Amino acid sequence: MFQGSMVAMVTPMHEDGALDEAGLERLVEFHIASGTDAIVAVGTTGESATLDHEEHCHVMRRTVEIAAGRITVMGGCGANSTWEARQLTECALEAGCEAALLVTPYYNKPTQEGLYQHFRHVADAVPMPQILYNVPGRTGVDLLPETVDRLADTANIVGIKEASGSLERAEEIIERCGDRIDVYCGEDARNLALMNAGAKGCVSVTANVAPGLMHRMCAAALAGDQTEAEALDARLAALHNALFLETNPIPVKWALLEMGLIGPGMRLPMTPLSEQYHETVRQALKLADAL
Questions:
Q1: 102, 130 contact by CB (below 8 A)
Q2: Domain ranges of the chain
Q3: Active-site residue (options: 107, 109, 133, 184)
Q4: Predicted model pTM
Q5: 138 FRET partner, CA 20 to 30 A, in 27, 108, 169, 243?
Q6: Known binding site: residues?
């Protein structure tokens, strides 16, 4: 249903942590001009954990309004409360998002049955395409392939952003689920490898700062042009590493500040990028022609 380079877009903020409305418009226009295939508004890279419910819904709504049908917009709707995840998904539907991305419930550590019931409840309650998101390194819980297989029979669960760190895991989901559910890479350093294995694209942090290059790489990979895809991915490799030198989204927000696209704001407990990493990130941006 969806494919290509889908950006896990940051939420721009002023220095005091207030939402930056002008910065949001700049970012949306930047991605439209650069060929990004879809925007994920207020995912975990968008600091969803520190936005209150009203702010969360507002950013999804404004992103859709600014996009005005020119680019696919998805809403980040995951929460560790099933009720809250349902409410946020309802907000995404009302805002006009074309899909919802739902991370596994963090900290709670539900069982596989609990994960199944969580995602199934939201899918049954809100009639819109939904994409699962598995990132055990951040959430403390791992959505296993057999549970994804069960969920793939739910009509409006259409994909999974897989960020477990295992290529074999993604391959197993693709083999188990076939065309019932699409797989998207959630780790930029593995984007090309997963698309070669059958993934339909990526939900990318790197696409925040090199959207045109990421779009072209994904398009080449999906078209089977391995030579072109490898050449483009090589230009992105330094960014894939540099943007995770500290906890995401600290480096990517600093990179966007350096590019003049957003201000310096982020909310505690996130803090600005350590000065020792500034030059490394700056050089990675230059290698990708982002500066």
A1: yes
A2: 4-225
A3: 133
A4: 0.97
A5: 27
A6: 45, 203
